[in-house]
Specification:
CATH architecture of chain A: Alpha-Beta Barrel
Strand content of chain B: 35-45%
Number of strands of chain B: 16
Shape of chain B: globular
CATH topology of chain A: TIM Barrel
Largest sheet of chain B: 7 strands, antiparallel
Order of helices and strands of chain B: EEHEEEEHEEHEHEEHEHEEEE
CATH class of the largest domain in chain B: Alpha Beta
Radius of gyration of chain A: 19 Å
Low-confidence stretches of chain A: 308-313
Oligomer: heterotetramer
Shape of chain A: globular
CATH topology of the largest domain in chain B: Rossmann fold
Helix content of chain A: 25-40%
Number of domains of chain B: 2
Strand content of chain A: 15-25%
Mean pLDDT of chain A: 94
Strand order of the largest sheet of chain B: 4-3-7-1-2-6-5
Structural class of chain A: alpha/beta
Helix content of chain B: 10-25%
Largest sheet of chain A: 8 strands, parallel
Largest interface: A-C, 57 and 57 residues
Number of strands of chain A: 16
CATH class of chain A: Alpha Beta
Number of domains of chain A: 1
Bound molecules: flavin-adenine dinucleotide, flavin mononucleotide, FE2/S2 (inorganic) cluster
């Protein structure tokens, strides 16, 4: 039996599959479909300090092999999360990564402080990349200094693993991974969604109430794989990859590109039973290829040229 | 919890150039579904279309006493309903369910008045069967664009459901909106010359119709339950796409996920603005 | 009958449909499938000064609703293009936009000089955004100064309309549109492809010989529409939009978002007869919506909120 | 020029767990196609899968003297061949063609030797018919993994084609590669005790096989034409994905587009290096 465990800084995950933030409710919604303790981790829906109503509908629209969302981070806020969701998650023995969002640096710090004291929190994912809200978040994620500042401020106040979540809406994502590493991050995760939009041509109005939204799903996978590949070569800390993963093959593609673990988002909407299917597919692959530990696959992409190379006459 | 079934298409019956009924071999779901619950379906393979789409369970199919499958009543409006219109026997449709909160039934002597607008007929076949089984007197107010888009009338009649029909073009039943005969009958019921005035109104159709029905029910002092159709990404409470504003105690509103808190809501709870 | 003509700087196009560079050969390949004079314009395959062999296969790979390409700009070079292709294109009364690629600023200038003297060239599209070659190109396209310099250098040596083609692989594409406008561009076109990759998990090798390639096709459309929308609000010059257009609806979406004209690339591979279908669809829409000129649609997106807006209690 | 036909599936015949033959109602293409030409097909709707895929025209179907359609011999290896394996009668497959350069036929007294590896059989049914019509003596060297993957043998035999079979597992014909019997017969033909030594070799199959066949033909002084299968994005010369290196006068190589300069090439022109 292959060893599926992977290491994210000080945290050991049972396997590399994490439920992506915002795509798995608070986790409890899916407890009937999947035994939460069998997941590498459950990443919570993005949490602010205070409850938020989010954007009015329409909040999603389907696009070719993808979807746009502009949920606007509707959520119950960190205090109700701790009071109402964490106990059940603890009971179900989920590994909980909390996705935190602030409008200011201080809010990130306060969230980190509060969550560091909570029982059953295993890591913090810093959402500095949500394209759907005007305040904060992505303004940190699109600036190297902003990224460095948030990560180091949070680093100072928590013993938990700190995982900044990077936006793909930048020229050079690897530089953000480096800034995160320098600031003391235990890992980076990427990608968040691509800023995008869709228009109803009959009404000439945006299909989303928020005008723009974030593109996720299989459509973005080739870009996400490239970004993971770039980041893994730029830093020594683990990279958590995501973007359009919908099968064991896709997970393996990210691992081989350089991801130590992966998250599945949109595909969980399509198939809430995806988790065991993907895990079985990975086990099968490891066996067929005689790989003892899933961690041995990470970054094993072979870019040496074996093509018949010749030059023009 | 819901199950996911790779359901074979047993048959595809076209009712018009836009409406069809697809019979799916999904006995696991059909055997568990309650009236008002829905399934999330995806025909074909590949990632375009990507997301499943929500459909009410229309009928539960039984053969020799055993549950064989279920049907969907589908109106063609876009990508997935277009594919569903064209499926043929032997094709496979992924079907996840049952999902959502069902209608709350009523027992005699209370009466049930079902109000359907267009494809909003879909949840009322199973509801009617459950009501009839309890002996609850049931009426179907059913409005459509034209008489050619009023389907399954015999089906309902043969089960003893009283039909009140309306069409926008007047080609069958009363001309105009279904809320006109509904209000007339509510008014009449209020005047107590009807056998029973304990009536619960169930509605499914376009949201403006649901709003009107809820308000009429409230006006005449009747309970109502409406089944709403918001765009749904997952049907399981995971994505927060399907939210609808409900009233809260303080007089304000907040968004709840219609896939898990609904799709059936008490008409009085929704914040129709 | 609606007026389909649009204006790109001094150049009038019969309609807003252009064949995208690299997706229509040199144009002559498609002369049997579509009357080239009925297109708004034919954009040539990217041309260097010298012939190039391009990358070894595999050069393309399909991805969800998209494709990656790393052709590597195989081509016959500008001189053979003028000698062997332009005469037939002239004869067929095509409106020819030449997509030029250089490794240095001087090469762009020389290409512009040579083409300005050629008969039958109507505009220059500056490819400063090809993700598939190491030299030049995208290094200009990812730097505001580089973009400004190339555009102004070419501007100085040609009377032809100059259209820099922007890369989407940047944080703020609108700033590149502004730099182009300041440097004297007549229009900007976007998007070129997104840098991306795909891995064969069985061999752990990249699927493309060049490791990375450019993502095009319907998958990217929502991102491209957003970028066109941003650019159109940032500049006064026309924006030529592209990225995943495969139907009249998609063309209209770009026009409403702010594109004056559009290019169709990948979809021409799927359906070489797409051109008349799309034109008919546009005509039908204009009639149904009682719009006299297609140009009247440009940028008519209505972002005013008509949703029931309310705030949380 | 090619035409694009939304072709109805007339029937889908499964030959094994991977191979099937799909009959398509595309008479416009079938009536124009020459042996060795191909079509670009796309089953289903939506944008995943996105690109068409190239397939040789396998048979031209005739009914009462009129061209009715064509068939494709498909081997299931991925997304599109998977969908084609599952199509049912009445489904629609977009079919663009005919495309590419055909084989150059030979007339008696020259002989034609066709060499097929696996699904590389596909272009040889139409080629055989054209050769037979000219009275050209024709042999099919046909190799596959096992006897169960040798298809249409009766079809070829009934048209007077001589069959030389080989399988990798030896379950039918000679054990091993198809190039073994090919070389033996080429050698024998060179020793002039055969009726005619003017032989043209046609080959389709995996590229290593095509290379070996070209080299054998050259070694024994025979002309060869091979049909190559490169990944094709458009089939029309638009994308430059399908390139293959050909020799040029100076002793070097350059890439040409196999969709419009091929898929059929003289074996001697390709730079196998
Ligand atoms: C609980 C529930 C039960 C439903 N039951 C049925 C049923 O029994 N039969 C049936 O035919 N339909 C039913 N619907 C509606 C059905 O889900 C939509 O028609 C379907 O999702 C459209 O998919 P499509 O791919 O064909 O259209 P798309 O291509 O996704 O959309 C086409 C157009 O329709 C709009 N649209 C999409 N979904 C909806 C919607 N829910 N309401 C209004 N406009 C929409 C889109 O914005 C777009 O403009 C139900 C919906 C819900 C939420
Ligand atoms: C001119 C021509 C004629 C052809 N005729 C036939 C025919 O008659 N019958 C038939 O079954 N096939 C034929 N092929 C091959 C056929 O086009 C491919 O099998 C098909 O494109 C695979 O599509 P897919 O979506 O099933 O596989 P994909 O999902 O696209 O690919 C699956 C795997 O196969 C690889 N692959 C894709 N295309 C090819 C290829 N051409 N050769 C080798 N590997 C490939 C991919 O890289 C991938 O690893 C022909 C190809 C050409 C160029
Ligand atoms: C509906 C929806 C809501 C999301 N909410 C969040 C969120 O709250 N915080 C966050 O960091 N990312 C959020 N994301 C982004 C995902 O976590 C993930 O980064 C992205 O969707 C790409 O992965 P996928 O293609 O597998 O979905 C959300 C995505 C979707 C589709
Ligand atoms: C095979 C291929 C070759 C391309 N070659 C070029 C090129 O030579 N020059 C260029 O500017 N863009 C090139 N592009 C990019 C396209 O012109 C276009 O910007 C991009 O594909 C997005 O449009 P689409 O989604 O409609 O294909 C190429 C794209 C493809 C798919
Ligand atoms: S549909 Fe996803 S939360 Fe309701
Ligand atoms: S397949 Fe596109 S050029 Fe040959």
């Amino acid at each position: 039996m292959s060893d599926l465990s992977v290491q994210i800084g000080p945290l050991t995950l049972a396997n590399p599959l994490m439920a992506a933030s915002g795509c798995f409710g608070y986790g409890v919604e899916y407890a009937g479909a999947v035994d939460l303790s069998t997941l590498g981790a459950v990443v919570s829906k993005g949490l602010f300090l205070k409850p938020r109503e989010g954007h009015p509908p329409e909040r999603i629209v389907e696009t070719p092999s993808g979807m746009l969302n502009a949920i606007g981070l509707q959520g119950i806020g960190v205090h109700r999360y701790i009071a109402e969701k964490l106990p059940e998650l603890r009971e179900r023995r989920a590994t909980n990564v909390i996705n935190i969002c602030g409008s200011t640096l201080d809010e990130y710090v306060e969230l980190a402080r509060i969550l560091s004291d909570a029982d059953g929190v295993h890591a913090l994912e810093l959402n500095i990349s949500c394209p759907n809200i005007k305040e904060g978040g992505i303004t940190f994620g699109c600036s190297l200094n902003g990224t460095f500042d948030v990560v180091s401020a949070v680093r100072k106040v928590t013993h938990l693993p700190v995982i900044p979540k990077l936006t793909p809406n930048v020229t050079d994502v690897a530089s953000f991974a480096r800034a995160s590493e320098e600031a003391g991050a235990d890992a980076v995760s990427l990608v968040n969604t691509f800023l995008a939009m869709a228009i109803d041509v009959e009404t000439r109005r945006p299909k989303l109430s928020n005008v723009v939204g974030g593109l996720s799903g299989p459509a973005i996978r080739p870009i996400a794989v490239r970004m993971v590949y770039e980041c893994q070569r730029a830093v020594k800390i683990p990279v958590i990859g995501m973007g359009g993963i919908a099968s064991a093959r896709d997970v393996l593609e990210f691992l081989i590109a350089g991801a130590t673990a992966v998250q599945i988002g949109t595909a969980n909407f399509v198939d809430p039973f995806i988790w065991s299917k993907v895990l079985n597919g990975i086990r099968d692959y490891l066996q067929r290829h005689d790989v003892a530990r899933v961690a041995d696959l990470v970054g094993t992409i072979d870019t040496s040229s074996r093509e018949k190379q010749w030059t023009s006459s | 919890m819901p199950v996911d079934v790779e359901a074979r298409v047993i048959r595809n019956t076209r009712l018009s150039s836009d409406y069809n009924v697809i019979a799916l071999a999904a006995p696991e779901i059909a055997g568990a579904v309650e009236p008002g619950q829905f399934v999330m379906v995806k025909p074909g393979r590949g990632t375009d279309p990507l997301l499943r789409r929500p459909f009410s369970v229309f009928e539960v199919l039984r053969r020799e006493g055993r549950v064989e499958g279920l049907t969907l009543l589908s109106k063609r409006i876009g990508a997935v309903t277009g594919l569903l219109f064209d499926v043929v026997e032997g094709d496979v449709v992924s079907c996840l369910g049952p999902l959502g909160r069902p209608f709350n039934l009523v027992d005699p002597p209370a009466e049930a008045w079902m109000v359907a607008g267009g494809v909003g007929l879909a949840p009322f076949a199973t509801l009617a069967e459950s009501l009839v089984a309890r002996g609850t007197k049931t009426t179907l107010f059913y409005g459509a664009r034209s008489g050619a888009e009023l389907f399954y009338l015999d089906w309902f009649e043969s089960r003893g459901i009283r039909l009140v029909l309306s069409t926008e073009d007047g080609s069958r039943g009363e001309r105009g909106r279904v809320t006109v005969p509904l209000e007339r009958e509510l008014r009449r019921a209020g005047s107590a010359d009807l056998e029973s005035a304990d009536i619960k109104v169930f509605a499914c159709g376009p949201e403006p119709m649901l709003e009107a029905v809820s308000q009429l029910a409230a006006k005449y002092g009747k309970r109502s339950e409406v089944s709403v159709e918001r765009v749904m990404g997952c049907g399981m409470g995971g994505c927060y796409s399907c939210v609808i504003p409900v009233r809260d105690a303080g007089g304000g509103h907040h968004y709840v996920r219609s896939c898990i808190s609904g799709p059936v809501f008490a008409g009085a709870d929704l914040a129709w603005d």
